[in-house]
Amino acid sequence: MNPSFSVAGKTILVTGGTRGIGLAITRALVEGGATVIANYVRDQKSAELLQAERGDTRLSVVRADLSREKGMDKLFDALHQTLQGSTLDGLIHCAATGIHAPFDQMQLKHWDWTMNLNVRAFFDLMVRAREVFANGASVIALSSEGAHRAIPNYSLVGASKGALESLCRHLAIEMSSLGVRVNVLSPGSVLTDAWNAFPDKEQRIEIVTNKIPGGKLTSLEEVASVAMFLCSDASSAINGQTIIVDHGERISG
Question: In angstroms, rounded to a whole number, what is the distance separating the alpha carbons of residues 40 and 22?
Answer without folding.
Answer: 10
